Structure formats: structure tokens, C-alpha cells
């Protein structure tokens, strides 16, 4: 004990002699002075009154104890807290808020899956849509099912049921909107049961030595799960149209989306790309707005459709390209896609009534993305601002722990490259990564949950990710909390899906 105290005293003396070596923000920087954002920030009054305004809002906040008629669930794929903080600077400064930053209630969700420390989008989709944690790479099936186990895939006793199905059973309208392939892991969590997320088409099923006649791929499940048919090899889009009747509309571009006759349309299948949709910046740069809608435009169309259902609705909206951009170390695109995502949330919030519509915003998992150094306030976030006191080279404020950006971190001799030579105007610049990997990985820490509307306060605190759909179900009175499930034949319920499936196109060509 005595030794311990001596050691502690020694440390204190050392640090008082040499200063705080851990937070040395007096090292060299390419930008020494902070941009003055607001002169008032230099005063006590500014900060105290700003804090007091927030406190007043908190003290006067009233719980909204209504049940929700509608739920809109926004999922920013890979939208880590670092991503959120960095994206705020795109709005004009560190002090700005993304639209959902203003939601009254927040919580944290733990994202690990049953057999993995760091989750993928398949096991997390199962957690946040069906209320059950399961194994990495599997969707809508319990952890008793091992990955790529053909027999487990078809064992319905292992299937978990999603909140989309729960809502349909209580006669609510449902919709799925995503910027990825509609058969990709996150949206698949709404309707599919599979032991392998890559079984988006029957080629992949056969490739893994399962019988594609018995094992339905994800695209088939999208179209047929509702009616329980097995129609391998058929034209899925035509099958969807004929099953839905004259009020079903299949669209594939933004002009058609804008021309929807909502009064005479009950079902929409919108597939706007042959793979994931394009990054927003690519759509803008190549003037492709007539072919690809923005996430906000898809959100608006989905809400207009679903609002027709007097029993209410459940709508799942995914900003899927945040994750894709991070995997390539495209930091600028990840933040731009986050901006697109928050704009869609603003559209949804302004189109709906806070007294009857619960809006929940979260991410499935984090990424190994950092926002680092001690750059002065208002520094350009995408540039190299600070200078290392070890190799005397500048370093970027944004970087990754791993990924293809390794190439931009070190030269062939293992020396760090000088980021001052990078083309920061190129939005597809790959940000430096420490460990070389062909694709950057997810991160294992918690993600944030934001909520507004009926009983949004229930999302406060810290919980396992699979709690989220159970809270939504409680507030919406569906699933385990349903009073009456009158619509067990789900085929009659409107389902609206906006995005694209390469797999469906593949089937058409067969
Ligand atoms: Zn991912």
C-alpha cells in the first residue's frame, strides 16, 4: 500500500514538472488560429443562458403517454456516434445539430451478436427488427441455426418474426425503404429467414451446396413469404404484380415515383438500380436525379402511400450507403450520406403528427472511424490540419483503424505519406487507415438511439439492441402487445418497397 502511494506521488511530481504530455495541443498545426464562430461564445452569459434554455426545456418536458398509431423506424447503417459528430460540421460548425439531434429522448444500444463481439448487419437486423439476438451472418432465425446450415434454414421452428409482420397482423400498412439492394441484410431483416445473408439469389444457395428447390433465397422470400409459395425460377416482379392486382405499381425511376397516383395505388415496388443505389454525390455529379430518387423523396412517397391506411402503419427506412462508404474509407461520402439520412428524417417528422407517430432513429453498428487530433475550432474536417510531433508530417482529422486507405497511410518503405499532397477535393479520397484490409470493418462499441413522439421516453437509457423492436411493439400495440390480430392473412396488406434488386433482374434474364 505504501509503495503504491509513493508511486502515485512520483507521477504527480513528474507531470507538474513537464506539463500534460497527453493533451499536447501546442504542437505544430497547419492552422494555428480558430475561426471565431460567434463573439458571444467568449462570454459567460452566452454559455450559461444557452445551458439554462436547454434546462428549461428539460424541466417543462411532458411525457407523451399516447400509444402510437404509426411508427417510422430509421436505420443509419454503420452510423457510429463519431460519424454523427463529424457530420454536424457539414451543416456549418461543431455547434450545429443534425435534425434528429433535437429529438427529446436518447439511449444506447449494445450491438454484439450471439457468436460475435463485433456485429454485422445481418445479426443486428434480426435484433432490431425481430427482438432476438442471433448468429453473425444469419437473419430472422435464432442462434440455434448455424451459418450455412441448409436444414436449419428451412426449420420454421427456428424462425423469428419481425415487427413488420407484427404490424401487418394488426391490419397496419407496412413499408420498407432503403438505398441498398432490397435483399441486402438490413432490409432482409424485415421479411426473410436465412442462415446466410449472401443467399440473395438461388445461385448463391446452390453455390453453398444447399438444394435451391427447398431453400428459398432472400429475393424469393421478399415476394413470396407473405403467401408461402415456392416459385423458383419465375419472374418475381411479374409474380408480384399479378398477386397484387390492378392497384399495384412497379416503378424503376424517379419520374415514375413523382407521378404516382396515390388515390389509385395500393402497392408500390420501386427498384431504381441494378445493385445498391448510387451515392448521393454521384447522382448529383452525373445529373441522374431523374432516374434515382433521393432518400428524402422515397421517404415522402412512402409516407404518402402509408398514410392512406386508417389503421396506421409501420415504416422501415434505411440509409444504407453510410456503411458502404465507410467500408471503402470514403469519409467524405459517409458524412454526406449521413446528411442525406438526416434530411429524410426531417421530411418524415414534418409530414407526421408527433402525437400519433413515433419516430426512432438508430444505427445497427459502429465503424472504426476516428475524429482526432486537436484541430482548431472550425477547421476543414476533411483536411490534414495537425502535425505529428514524431514524424513532422501533417495528419488528417478523419482516419480509420483499418481498410483500403492503408495505401494512403504508408508508402512501400513503410514511411507515412504526407497528406498535404492528398486531393481533398476528390470526394472519393480514401482516408488513411492503419491496418491493411480490402474493406474497412465495423466497430464494436454501442450506438445511439434517438426517439420522438408517443412514449418516446421509453427509449431512454442503456439496453441490448434486441429491446428496440419490443419497445416499438409496446407503443404500437403489435406483436407481443397486440390486442387483436385480425389480419393474419398478410397478403391483403399493402407493402411498399422502394429500391432495387439485382437478383430480380438476374431471374428475369434466366
Ligand atoms: Zn457494413
TrEMBL record:
Q: How is the cofactor bound?
A: Binds 2 Zn(2+) ions.
Any idea which UniProt keywords this protein has?
A: Hydrolase, Magnesium, Metal-binding, Signal, Zinc
Q: What class of enzyme is it?
A: hydrolase
* Catalysed reactions, semicolon-separated: a phosphate monoester + H2O = an alcohol + phosphate
Active-site positions, per UniProt? 121
Q: Does the keyword Ribonucleoprotein apply?
A: no
User: What name appears for this protein in its UniProt entry?
Assistant: Alkaline phosphatase
